[in-house]
Design brief:
By secondary structure, the chain is of the alpha/beta class. Helix content is about 55%, strand content about 15%. The protein is elongated.
């Protein structure tokens, strides 16, 4: 595909589909972005912001080189049934991009009616500000050049990590569900600050920047979190007493259990689950 003329079509412009469209707009012209949504008003509002084109599912199926399926898993069968006759008539190459939890590449192909090239991704909410974590895996017939074009188009979204498909549900429990867990911790840290006399605004700023900086330090230093924790805990000091209380409350085990519970629920929702 010619990177200068590649068209990206988004079927579904909700929170995640819309965020990815915004990410793509940072690298490609709005005229090459097509937007469709069950609620046309939502697609129109986003199109105005991105200077993109409002479209419909059939037009995207006919014209887009990358067809981004931003619909919920329970709606995927309906959407693919709607566009599969159009896809079957195409002569130009295209790729399907799916972000539906629990739906494998094989299942997407089954619903689409043919073994089309598929890129399966699992983004998270911070892609909306360019700080997301996006896992991806590809079907065997995705060309390296097309994968590279995809990664370049969405590079603004954040970090991308290739992962075997059979590990994607586990990765999703960490990076896609994780923001909710982190937000609970963030809110609790701010609550603690307020209890100690800080204003809500100041406590939230301190806690949020602390989390942001700590995560960045872990990524950029490559140090194990235990080593980073120990560097803050002076013998007989204040921090180690807080760590002791977290351990007494089962904090570490609760977080592990939250990830496992999310993973198990994903498996339960999968159409292939017995």
């Amino acid at each position: 595909m010619d990177n200068n003329s590649t068209v990206f079509g988004f079927i579904g412009t909700g929170n995640m589909g819309g965020a990815l469209a915004q990410a793509a707009r940072h690298t490609i012209d709005g005229s090459r972005i097509l937007l469709a949504n069950r609620s046309p008003e939502k697609a129109l509002a986003l199109a105005r912001t991105l200077e993109a084109r409002v479209s419909d599912n059939q037009e995207i199926a006919r014209e887009a080189d990358f067809i981004v399926l931003g619909v919920k898993p329970q709606l995927m069968e309906e959407v693919l049934a709607q566009i599969s006759p159009v896809l079957a008539l195409r002569r130009s190459p295209f790729l399907l991009v799916t972000m539906a939890t629990g739906l494998t590449i094989a299942r997407i192909r089954e619903l689409a009616g043919r073994s089309y090239p598929v890129i399966r991704i699992m983004p998270n909410t911070p892609v909306s500000i360019g700080e997301g974590m996006v896992q991806y895996t590809c079907s065997e017939n995705v060309a390296d050049s097309d994968l590279q074009a995809f990664l370049e188009a969405f590079a603004w979204a954040g970090r991308f990590s290739s992962i075997p498909e059979f590990r994607m549900d586990a990765g999703s429990a960490v990076s896609a569900c994780g923001p909710a867990f982190a937000d609970i911790f963030l809110e609790a840290m701010a609550d603690g600050g307020v209890a100690c006399g800080l204003s809500r605004e100041q406590a939230m700023e301190l806690a949020a920047q602390m989390l942001l900086g700590t995560a960045k330090l872990a990524l950029e230093s490559g140090q194990h979190p235990a080593a980073l924790k120990d560097a803050v805990c002076s013998p007989g000091g204040t921090t180690i007493q807080g760590v002791r209380r977290l351990e007494e409350a089962g904090f570490r085990g609760a977080v592990i259990d939250a990830v496992i519970a999310s993973y198990e629920r994903t498996l339960e929702l999968s159409p292939t689950h017995p």
